[in-house]
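YM 10:42: Calnexin sequence, as discussed on the call
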Amino acid sequence: MMIMRRYALLLLLAIASLQLLCFAADDDVVFYDSFEESFDGRWIVSDKDDYKGMWKHSKSEGHDDYGLLVSEMAKKYAIVKELDEAVNLKDGTTVLQFETRLQSGLECGGAYLKYLRPQDAGWKPKEFDNESPYSIMFGPDKCGATNKVHFILKHKNPKSGEYIEHHLKYPPSVPSDKLTHVYTAILKPDNEVSILIDGEEKKKANFLSAEDFEPPFIPSKTIPDPDDKKPEEWDERAKIPDPDAVKPEDWDEDAPMEIEDEEAVKPEGWLDDEPEEIDDPEATKPEDWDDEEDGEWEAPKIENPKCETAPGCGEWKRPMKRNPAYKGKWSPPLIDNPSYKGIWKPQEIPNPNYFELEKPDFDPIAAIGIEIWTMQDGILFDNILIAKNDKVAESYRETTWKPKFEVEKEKQKAEDEAADSARLAGFQRKVFDVLYKVADIPFFSKYKHQILDLIEHAETQPNLTIGVLVSIVVIILTIFFKLIFGGKKQPRVEKKPEVAETSNGEGSSGEKAEEAEKEEAAAAPRRRRRDN
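YM 10:58: structure's back
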């Protein structure tokens, strides 16, 4: 009885703990949209004239899972979702996460989200556009040389009151496939931010580090004095022409770079009186040629056949050679400048906009917007999440993204293998066709049967193609080496002719040789031949 009570108590504690975790998880989820229901009535499409792209509630290819789809090419899109309550980025951890699938690829366009400031910053949902003020822009962007996962924060300079865009330096690149990928940004209270793609950390940075953001959040203490001017006598030349140098008397600036080779001699047999080209003796004037309309007919030119056997035709001229006396234009040598002061820079003065910062003063997030211009359609957004706990974001990745990704990855793998097999088969067919042509070359006739056997063997077992190529190359090299280096001839041994005995009825030696040749031919294996 006591044991049963203990088990019951443990069960109640486990249930209570599970409920507590669930409540904690619910409290940590600030916003989540799975798009299983239509976005109509929940998300607001911009009425601005530039944004004509049609949003659709559509299934992801190969899944029953719905998302928000970019349905048309070469259009601008803008849509926004107001949050029930603004998210404070200054307190605790904030996690921004969403999925995108580039079902048609991405050659030029964005697939990022904008996390907008409250509307009192000067924007309206129906007028949402690229000028609407945001706190964070996060997500993939690719066009031309641009290929990055943006992470941009707008921060207000406490001195000037101006909002500055701070771009993450060296952001990760965009995956190049057409699978579903999940992008996560984790903003931590210790001023660190982590960028994850598919749950794997690709970049870690610190908001206050000048090495991680451009421009840095904390300005430089000093700046170049805008009023400082370079003195007129300031000499930045490190080297100057030697003022004491004098051009040598034997320096001839007019000497040509090349001169005739006086030692050259006209080759024997040079045909001085023969032109390099002559009229084609076989050419005839076309019957429909009209001299008045077409002009005087001239036979086409051909190369002079007499010049083919001679060293040259026409007027012989000595070849040119480099002039040993050529020196070009003289200029004095360079020497160290005694007046050199270095490269001038304005003096540094205190930066009037400098401020110290212990933690960025981010504006809260009041809405999520997608404002993009893309050349591709098929971009699908799904499972947009804002949470206050990175473990919650991890659990969403495991349950909503990973199952889809695994299915897509296996399908992509099968398609890639099929495509590779088709390409390999096409390549092998071309290789075999070339090898059959090689086998038909008379030069290789002695080895033709051996080459054909190798090819036919490879056709039945395509994985042996490389080995067959190597074998045929070895055969060809063997032939060439024999041709180049030859071989030692065997000494000739003269034998005395044997006297044929015909009295025993066994036939002459000539008849025996004839019979032996027939037996040898009958014993030789037949070679398969390919009929082209």
